[in-house]
Design goal:
Blueprint: H1 2-12, H2 23-36, H3 39-55, H4 60-76, H5 80-97
């Protein structure tokens, strides 16, 4: 179910449905993946949940908090590729908030560096 939800909501339905309606199904896909042991697809759903927050205009502070929590979970589940994708997005969100000293390089706290 997680893979189906991800494919439909991340790549197809955005042409015919409002993005604001995607959060619940994406989170259900995440939960389904976790229940069935499909960590990879579950983490993709979690990543897309953060993307949806940004695309639907939620406050950057909320997005950063959700992004950081998701990265922590991805690291714990050894889903390094998804965590790296979110770290890059986190860097963008921090740059947009003016919280980054270097807006040109992928470095600093967002990238897991001090």
């Amino acid at each position: 179910k997680a893979k189906t939800v991800l494919v439909l909501y991340a790549h197809a339905f955005h042409h015919v449905k409002p993005l604001q309606s995607f959060s619940k199904p994406i989170l259900e896909g995440y939960q389904s993946g976790m229940r069935t042991g499909d960590k990879s697809m579950s983490m993709w759903c979690l990543l897309w949940n953060v993307v949806l927050l940004y695309r639907t205009g939620k406050p950057l502070k909320l997005i950063v908090e959700q992004c950081q929590a998701s990265i922590t979970q991805m690291d714990e589940l050894k889903q390094k590729e998804r965590a790296l994708c979110l770290r890059i997005m986190l860097k963008l969100y921090l740059d947009l908030m003016g919280s980054s000293n270097n807006t040109v390089e992928l470095s600093g706290k967002a990238m897991g560096k001090k």
